[in-house]
Design a protein that fits this description.
The chain has about 375 residues and is an alpha/beta fold. It is built from 15 helices and 9 strands. Helix content is about 40%, strand content about 10%. The two termini are about 20 Å apart.
Length: about 375
């Protein structure tokens, strides 16, 4: 159990990580992660895919922010049942889940579980859009470097993103494509700052709870869970650790899989249910002006968890040209459209390269 603190946001501010953004050297134009010699990424540390047993049992933690819509017990049960069924259909793997443990978000966000070096590295990775202090050129360089590391194909990315962008580069270079993606991400990200939560305050406030980089790092502090479900909106921008599908949504992260040495898989799969359950204008626009019935929202979240389990169990990638695969990222937040296109049989028949074991390299936890 994490040490509870009611001063989480205040203590994050005392770290001064936003000030660090100004000081970060532009010399590391191809890989921002090389800035900290002790970071696992700079050491080229990667987690091998786990030896997956015949039956997989995973521990679940439910991280709750009282400001946002939360899932009922019935919804959580359907979410996990859907993830289990989909894992069998798409991966041929039986997955079960243990009793869900609920944790307040103020308790989960305990920066003291991370070393000072990791907290500094997190500060370097955050693009400070809240104060308008981020360096866009640096963000673009980090994005390009990441896509090069992932051997991303410009044509595949263009085909995936084109229907959801106001414009898209016709250039065959990653640099030109990333420029459009970053512009879209930062412009749409600003909309989230105008959305109000149930308490009347902005959905994205002064707390760090929306920042993807913290969610990526905190499980690596040794949090004992293979799965984390949260109702927190995760929407931000990073100097690296970006993705095409997140960029076109305005920095929204539906899910993530990150290193965790206390997980039986070596990783923890995270799912945010805010994009399925919220009804504010910003999220509805990205959903194609749809609202979902409560149990539909739970089912879509379960499909998304199965997607993350594909990363966690097999280190699958994203087959950007195969809509039948659950590993295909949901376009914008159009989960109904995404779900209707899924077919385990068709995905297997496609033999997509991204669906090969260890198709992507999973970084070790920062240390």
């Amino acid at each position: 159990m994490l040490k509870k603190s009611s001063e989480g946001p205040l203590r994050f501010n005392q770290l001064g990580y936003r000030e660090i953004l100004k000081q970060f050297s532009r010399a590391c134009c191809l890989s921002i992660f090389n800035a900290l010699a002790t970071s696992a990424f700079a050491q080229g540390c990667f987690i091998p895919p786990p030896d997956v047993p015949a039956i997989v049992s995973l521990r679940v933690t439910h991280v709750v922010n009282p400001r946002f819509p939360r899932a009922s017990g019935e919804q959580l049960r359907l979410l996990l049942e859907t993830a289990s069924e989909t894992s069998m259909q798409h991966f041929g793997k039986s997955v079960s889940f243990t009793t869900t443990t609920e944790v307040p978000i103020s308790e989960f966000f305990n920066p003291e579980r991370l070393t000072p070096g990791v907290r500094a590295e997190i500060g370097r990775r955050i693009f400070d859009f809240k104060r308008g202090a981020g360096d866009r050129a640096e963000m673009q360089r980090g994005f390009v470097a990441q896509l090069h590391r992932e051997s991303a194909q410009v044509g595949d990315i263009q085909a995936f993103a084109k229907p959801y962008l106001p414009e898209i580069s016709r250039s065959n270079t990653l640099e030109a494509l990333v420029e459009v993606l970053v512009d879209t991400q930062l412009r749409r990200l600003e909309h989230w700052r105008t959305v109000k939560a149930a308490d009347g305050q902005p959905v994205i406030d002064a707390s760090p709870y929306n920042e993807y980089t913290w969610w990526d790092a905190l499980p690596g502090a040794g949090y004992s869970a293979e799965v984390i479900i949260t109702n927190q909106l995760i929407a931000s921008a990073e100097n690296g650790d970006n993705s095409v599908h997140s960029a076109i949504r305005g920095g929204v992260t539906n899910g993530n899989t990150s290193a965790n040495p206390k997980s039986t898989l070596g990783t923890t799969a995270l799912v945010s249910i805010y994009p399925m359950m919220a009804r504010d204008p910003a999220v509805r626009s990205l959903r194609g002006d749809e609202d979902y019935a409560p149990m539909d929202a739970a089912r879509y979240a379960g499909l998304l968890l199965a997607h993350e389990l594909g990363h966690a169990l097999y280190h699958f990638g994203h087959p950007f040209t195969e809509k039948s695969c659950v590993m295909y990222p949901p376009p914008l937040l159009r989960f109904r459209q995404w779900a209707n296109d899924l077919s385990g049989f068709a995905c297997h028949a496609s033999a997509a390269k991204a669906m090969a074991r260890a198709a992507v390299k999973m970084n070790c936890a920062l240390n």
